[in-house]
Amino acid sequence: MKAWRGDAAPPGSQHETPDAAALEELRRRGIELDPEAAGHEHPHRHSVPGEPPLIGIVGAGAVGTALGAALHRAGWPVVAVASRDEARRERFRGLVPGARGFAEAAAILDEVELIILAVPDDAVEQLAGELRLYGGQALVHTSGVLGAEVLEPARAAGTQIGAFHPLVAFADTERAIAALHGATVAVEGDDQLASLLGDMAEAIGATAVRLAPGSKAAYHAAAVLAAGGFDALLDAIAELGAAAGLDEQGSLAVYGGLIEQTLGNARALGIRAALTGPMTRGDVGTLARHLDALARLAPGVLPLYRAAAEREITLAESRGSLAPEAAKSMRSLLAMAG
Ligand SMILES: NC(=O)c1ccc[n+]([C@@H]2O[C@H](COP(=O)([O-])OP(=O)(O)OC[C@H]3O[C@@H](n4cnc5c(N)ncnc54)[C@H](OP(=O)(O)O)[C@@H]3O)[C@@H](O)[C@H]2O)c1
Asked: What's this model's pTM, rounded to 2 decimal places?
């Protein structure tokens, strides 16, 4: 379907453009045609055959801006951005010289072949409903939780839809661009589009992966635990550190080393073998002291500590290092602390 690899829809594609003879035969038999099934053609700009597609990004937020800059630096033509906010649009254009800025997402359809929707998950479907692709164009979103099918409303004959989800925490533009090197990107789409998205991932230093059908929400929930969930854990650690007289930087310095050590152990030995602490030893008295200190000094941390402790007890039991009696005592202490 793509202008950059030939204009025809891939064989067998659901949205293959009917050939002229077939259309004529249908007309001759007096069969009404859905006008849209014959395509939604438009003279939008095209890249040179064999070259990467002209790219437009909708949403100049954390992901859209970093991805736009990374692709531009990798030599891919990012030629347009749509953001309703002028300051964000200008910041994007500062990082991606030559990109044209638009307030409306629909306006970039005239400029590009590949449109990347980098907007909040909840806005993707609604936005797709406001766009109508032209033949030869592809639309992808960057959501980790939504499937490509949410983009169906924008689809017309000879177009493709997909997803491009980088497993990176986009907290800061330059740090995110650096983190794209070595990251994985979950891609979705027909074979032809997935292959292009694979090339795009490679261009920015990442590796494309295709997830098992139906697994995206679980994959993304794990990512959210690893990024936001871990940050929430750091916040809880810092709150307890404050009770011990440490400021945030102090906590990160003191406990950061322990975190890195635990991650290193898990990588080298496996998650179960890396578990250390009172829950592995059945130290009920230590657990009781912790729960008492938490209740007095940092009650907000208690639910997180309890949830983690439950999981640690199960983990310790599964590796045979915790006697059933000790596990039982610890679980009842935790239940009372709730
Ligand atoms: N943050 C991450 O670490 C991360 C990692 C991987 C994937 N993702 C995914 O990437 C997507 C974007 O996330 P983000 O963190 O970049 O979000 P963000 O920083 O909040 O940026 C979202 C952008 O979309 C625009 N936008 C918001 N609502 C819109 C609407 N109704 N219509 C059109 N544009 C709208 C915003 O406003 P303006 O139009 O005003 O600019 C903004 O530019 C999400 O699907 C997210 O799940 C995020």
From this structure: 0.84
Spacing, Cα 196 to ligand 1 middle (Å): 23
User: Tokens at residue 264, please?
Assistant: 């290193």
What's the pLDDT score for residue 41? 72
Question: Which is the closest atom of ligand 1 to the Cα of 61?
Answer: 21
Residue nearest to atom 48 of ligand 1 (CA): 63
Residue 273, classed as helix, strand or coil, is: helix
Dihedrals φ, ψ of 37, to 5°? -65, -20
Residue 60 CB–ligand 1 contact under 6 Å: yes
Which atom of ligand 1 is nearest to 84's Cα? Answer: 39
User: Across the chain, what does the average pLDDT equal?
Assistant: 90
CA distance 332 to 320: 20
pLDDT digit string, tens, across residues 229-255: 999 999 999 999 999 999 999 999 999
CB contact burial 54-63 (16+ within 10 A = b; e otherwise): bbbbbbbbbb
Residue 22 pLDDT greater than 90, yes or no: no
Distance, CA of 80 to CA of 87 (rounded, Å): 15
With a 6 Å cutoff on the Cβ, whether 74 touches ligand 1 is: no
Q: Are 55 and 79 in contact (CB under 8 A)?
A: yes
Contact (CB, 8 A) for 170 and 63: yes
DSSP state of 4: B
**CA gap 284, 315 in Å, rounded:** 16
The owner of tokens 């657990």 is 287
Answer yes or no: is the C-beta of 143 below 6 A from any ligand 1 atom.
yes
Task: Report the C-alpha gap between 81 and 78 in whole angstroms.
Answer: 8
Rounded distance between C-alpha atoms, residue 329 and residue 313, angstroms? 11
Instruction: Find, among 179, 136, 144, 184, the residue nearest to 163 by Cα.
Output: 144
